[in-house]
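Here's what a typical entry looks like (Beta-1,3-glucan-binding protein-like isoform X2):
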Amino acid sequence: MYSLKNNSISTLILLQLNLLITIVLVKSYIIPEPLFEVLKPQGLRISIPDEPGLQYFTFHGNINSPILSEEVGQLTDDVFRAKNGRWTLEKKDLIIQNGDIINYWIYVQVNGAPFKKQNQSYTINALDSSKPTTIVSSVTPTIASPVKSTVSSRPEKGQLILNEDFNYLNESLWSRDVKIPLEPDYEFCVYHNDNHPYLVKIIDGVLRIQPVILEDLYGINVTLYGKLNLAGCTSNIPQECSQNAVAFNILPPIISARLNTKTRFAFKYGKIEIRAKFPEGDWLYPELWLEPLYSLYGPKYASGRVLLGFTRGNENLVDAEDFGKIFDARKLEFGLRLGSSTIHEETVHKIMDRGSRWNQDFHVYTTIWNENGFEFLVDGEEIGRLTSTTKGIWLHQFNISSITNISPFDQEFYISIGVGVGGIRVFPDKTISSGFIKPWKNVGAKKSMVAKLETRGQPQNCFGNRLFEGLVVGIKVERSQKK
């Protein structure tokens, strides 16, 4: 039905996306006005008072420019606990001037219910004090409504709440990640903007994400000696927006793309079906994830990630000391990624026999997510379940009072799709790929992006010409239970 061309790199394709969300009605909550404190010689402190049941506070703002709903913004931070009776974030390196306008929105979670205040602004007008200057926003307090998904009515069990058939790229639904990824995974690719239209194409109702080798576009040795500045960078970390190649800190050898629904669509609990053909090629993998809309339980993977189907693109990747331990495209995995200082995965898997590979054909990958945990299936066959009967068992620390058995997976999550490359998380050390030792190590004193990459400066030697497209031809999500 669909064909692949043997040209340079693997594609991820999505034809249909149907999602079902749980909506819970809760009582209204009045978000208190933030307290702005201008610090000397520079910096800004923003805080709200602590209140019973308040679990999480995040602030998102732009200085002298508008901010969209759900936009990360240039002035942003997540606060996970109160200190001295206030939920406080500080930006001590921020330089602001009299008359600067801060446009912002606020998100808080109280007793498990999310609330948001949008379209707010404040004008800085008190910078003449040698001591921290208290500036109280003059906006009249408003009642914030609970955050809801983009659904016009309460869906019934089994009803589709989002249907994406990829007749065109719906930019009102999908946004790009644009960054050079660092922590926690240090992927070996740049998630680029739409300046390279061939990275993301829709052909005959098929979304194709087609990575390319950096040096094929920008010239030989740019990986070693070049400089990369990303227009429209979506990260608030400067090093993820601009990098110079220095010593082992080379530029990512691959350009790829990742899309997400973070600013337009998120949900809680459902049955997710993905019809997909995963990418082929050494050190490639599909990125089909559920990611937390808000980092309530902490940064990195402390707030969780759900792997909605995953296999490595290598044709043959095995343990160097035990060839029976398989990590290549014969092995399909589903699961959860968890933790902050120490990151780990809980997965279920199925190994394909008779020499076949999961990325050679289309399959239907299904995840059922409810208040008990997760069930994973492929082509209608159950692969395994991950459940919890103990509160907090999946949390790295207990800083939230109202946890549940499946925390952190009791919050709203959004969808990410893309093609990933390398990194320090996905490919185990001491493995052999088609007779060659894996050319980098995941751990070391310095977790630079491609530290100790033996094929440094020669990405073709590492990735070859086997960077084929990965295909996803349908995602459907139905409501699995009523709330």
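Helices lie at 214-218, 222-225, 459-463.

More examples are in the samples folder.
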